[in-house]
Write a structure and sequence with these properties.
mainly alpha; single chain; about 70% helix; about 425 residues
């Protein structure tokens, strides 16, 4: 035990010598992540962040009814706050679309209104988007084109049918008045459709608000980046010392525990500083997080436990990766690739709900996804064994793998 304590003390001294440089890097990272968070949340809350989808209208818009309909939608309909319809030539629309100034454009065929009025309905409206484009904007654009096409076709077909029936019964003199009434009813349904539903916001993911979600995401991303910042602690270690300690009776697992304790302590110090920065922002009233409001101290007290546990698990993962790949370039590249890929799949850059189901499932299973789910539980105050168990199982697994890897290297006498 005394020998292990000496080994631990040696690792702590190495960690403390590297800590000032690491803290400078951590301060820069906190500043960058804080700036990204401020821009993200400002865009989310301001009107500028809620930009409208710009959709070009190309083709024969000369018909007075069609032109009146587009003008009415843009002037009176609720969709004007989300979608902006811009009549233009097709060449201009294509150039604007390629420059990213339009979300998409819609091609209106010649004779559309005549086709509708006479009941042929053989002139479909064409939605134009980029190849493979399946983002939110393209889906909205396709749905908008489909809704407009169906709405005009069905309503005008009904009016045309009504005119034929009235003609057959000899009531042609009433056709104009009834046509006007039917058109007004269609317009009334379209313009007042917002009253047919209510909107209930459940949050970005798991019931968390945007601020809460990205707070957890930035904390886990910060912990992943610490694996790169802590590289000097591993790249400068003596390769002969572990063999010397083994000859004195200290096994691979005991060595790993001592080195891991120093590395995890370093990461916990960095995390504590990051959380204190979050607390200062909350107490300063610069941002409010859900029900916590400006009470940053109370919020952080609930978050410390989950964040620290996630830090211990991710530190164990990073420690094992450094044991697995020992050369400088390879180890740094491994840390970077693992951090970025797990952050992407785990929903740290944007909500994972936008990803395909298989990728979401894999992202939740990976260590970063498990840590993120655990931190989200700490933020929402809804902890469960389902979110906590993977974190502690991963912690045990990675420490065991680190001990096994160290033992194999000591047996073979190879570190490169």
């Amino acid at each position: 035990m005394r020998r292990w304590c000496s080994w631990l003390g040696m690792q702590m001294k190495r960690m403390l010598r590297l800590l000032p440089v690491l803290l400078a890097a951590v301060a820069a990272t906190i500043g960058i992540l804080g700036l990204c968070a401020a821009l993200l949340l400002q865009g989310e809350s301001s009107g500028e962040g809620k930009h409208r989808f710009r959709i070009g209208m190309v083709g024969d818009l000369s018909d007075s009814y069609l032109g009146f309909g587009i003008s009415m939608v843009q002037a009176l309909d609720d969709s004007r706050f989300m979608v902006e319809l811009l009549p233009m030539e097709e060449a201009e629309a294509e150039r604007s679309f390629r420059r990213g100034e339009l979300s998409s454009y819609v091609r209106v065929p010649d004779g559309l209104l005549d086709s509708i009025v006479y009941g042929r309905n053989d002139k479909p409206v064409t939605y134009v988007g980029s190849e493979g484009q399946k983002g939110l904007e393209s889906i909205l654009g396709e749905e908008l084109a489909d809704i407009v096409s169906i709405l005009i076709t069905r309503s005008q077909s009904a009016i045309f049918g009504m005119q034929q029936i009235m003609g057959e019964y000899g009531r042609q003199s009433e056709t104009a008045a009834v046509t006007e009434q039917m058109n007004l009813k269609v317009f009334d349904v379209v313009l007042n459709r917002a009253g047919l539903y209510t909107l209930e916001e459940l949050g970005v993911s798991g019931g968390l608000s945007t601020t809460e979600y990205y707070l957890g995401a930035f904390l886990v991303l910060f912990l992943l980046l610490l694996g790169i910042y802590g590289s000097p602690l591993f790249l400068r270690r003596s390769r002969a010392l572990p063999e010397l300690m083994k000859s004195r009776g200290m096994g691979a697992l005991a060595q790993v525990f001592g080195e891991y304790a120093a590395y995890a302590c370093m990461n916990l110090i960095c995390l504590f500083i990051a959380l204190q920065a979050v607390g200062a922002v909350l107490q300063g009233g610069f941002v409010e997080i859900g029900e916590w409001g400006p009470q940053g101290t109370d919020f952080l007290r609930e978050l410390y436990g989950t964040a620290f546990s996630a830090a211990l698990m991710l530190s164990a993962l990073q420690f094992w990766l450094y044991e697995l790949v020992t050369d400088a370039a390879g180890s740094l590249m491994t840390q970077f690739v693992c951090a970025v890929s797990m952050a992407y799949l785990g929903g740290l850059f944007y909500p994972a709900d936008f990803l395909p189901k298989t990728m979401r499932t894999v992202g939740r299973i990976l260590p970063a996804g498990a840590a993120f789910g655990y931190v989200q539980g700490g933020i929402s105050g809804e902890m469960s064994l389902k979110t906590a168990a993977p974190v502690f199982l991963y912690l045990i697994l990675f420490l065991g793998l680190s001990g096994l890897t160290r033992g194999l290297r000591l047996e073979r006498g190879r570190w490169g």
